[in-house]
Amino acid sequence: MNANYKACLEACFTCLEACNICFHACLKEEHPEKMTKCIELDRECADFCSLAIASMQRSSAFVKEIVSICATVCEACGYECKKHDHEHCQKCADICFRCAEECRKLTA
Amino acid sequence: MNANYKACLEACFTCLEACNICFHACLKEEHPEKMTKCIELDRECADFCSLAIASMQRSSAFVKEIVSICATVCEACGYECKKHDHEHCQKCADICFRCAEECRKLTA
Amino acid sequence: MNANYKACLEACFTCLEACNICFHACLKEEHPEKMTKCIELDRECADFCSLAIASMQRSSAFVKEIVSICATVCEACGYECKKHDHEHCQKCADICFRCAEECRKLTA
Amino acid sequence: MNANYKACLEACFTCLEACNICFHACLKEEHPEKMTKCIELDRECADFCSLAIASMQRSSAFVKEIVSICATVCEACGYECKKHDHEHCQKCADICFRCAEECRKLTA
């Protein structure tokens, strides 16, 4: 596997986990009706990270394309999570922004 | 592809679609706080149907195993959806039960 | 779900199936060593179609982005499959090109 | 997320990566025609690990079911990889067996 992928791959793994944890935690919150956009974006972001991970691990010819959208989705998820005070949302936001940054570096 | 998979494959495609539509519609309902279990199970069920579809299409050696869990997840999702009066939930419930039935036939 | 997605969604479903069937059939060919690029692209294409399907069914905010890459991957897979005389490859090529066309229409 | 999942989750992440790397490396080998079963099982195993990861991260009600099949698929992939002398196959085999072991612990 391309050694340049290492940092981005780790960021995507961490982001996949944060998004799946945040998705589940949002559904269990006292007011899940305030978390619907977060729930939706957590799922999206997890799906794109998952495909980005697979693409890097398999040295796909389409790594740049998928990682580039992945950055967009991570940012959207990060901005939404940032609005909510729950610890899982704040943590997820930071991890999403960090993942977007690593994705952008790879496509630069 | 094994011709015996046809009915189950179609049921899984229909179920994947119903679950993804129900997931999104639940998040847009007036009271999404009542739909959290449905949202969670719609995602689960879509994921299992998706893997079941891929396994059948690729003539995997593990079709019976995945289709067998898929039936269990479809039933769980169907029972939850059935509790809600929204049209997308009732429709999803019927489709989930039908998919579970086709999955059971394949593993019988 | 957006009614405009209908044709593209169906094309992606058909393409997912063709790619998974072609993947498996290529591995069983007498000379799989000639099919390695086809095997690789069949898997890629199936993965992108799968995410495109989920995105449309859930009315994702990122449908255009994923469908746009999906078109690129479908074309790459189509050009590779077209080179091989096996019936599953020729069929897969036609279906990939048709899927790329529907994806392009959606992003036009 | 359930703390008991930690070891299994890490084993699944490592296994997903090993299988995707082995998949790609097998296709680039001098004699890919000898690697077809390995290629097929690498993809299967990656798919099951991926769903097992998502299920654990989202505290799914079906973790035991999916992790249990995952163990079976990991073992099948491990036995196949073990037959081949390539470094990526030997490494993948060890990682698959270790993942199967962690999956079995979780379902014990």
Model description:
The structure is a homotetramer of 108-residue chains. The mean pLDDT of chain A is 97. Helix content of chain A is 80%, strand content 0%. Chain A is elongated, with a radius of gyration of 13 Å. Chain A has helices at 6-28, 36-57, 63-82, 87-107. Chains in contact: A-B, A-C, A-D, B-C, B-D, C-D. Chain A binds chain C through residues 40, 43-44, 47-48, 51, 54-55, 58, 60-62, 65-66, 69, 72-73, 76, and chain C through 40, 43-44, 47-48, 51, 54-55, 58, 60-62, 65-66, 69, 72-73, 76.
Q: What is the distance, rounded to the nearest whole angstrom, between the alpha carbons of the first and last residues of chain A? A: 19 Å
Mean pLDDT of chain A: 97
CATH class of chain A: Mainly Alpha
- Largest interface, per-chain counts? A-C, 18 and 18 residues
Order of helices and strands of chain A: HHHH
Number of domains of chain A: 1
Round the Cα radius of gyration of chain A to an integer and report it: 13 Å
Summarize the structure.
The structure is a homotetramer of 108-residue chains. Chain A is mainly alpha-helical.
Features of the shown structure:
Four-helix bundle copper-binding protein (chains A, B, C, D), homotetramer, 0% strand, mainly alpha, Substrate Binding Domain Of Dnak, Chain:A, Domain 2, 108 residues, 4 helices, 80% helix, elongated, Csp_YhjQ (chains A, B, C, D)
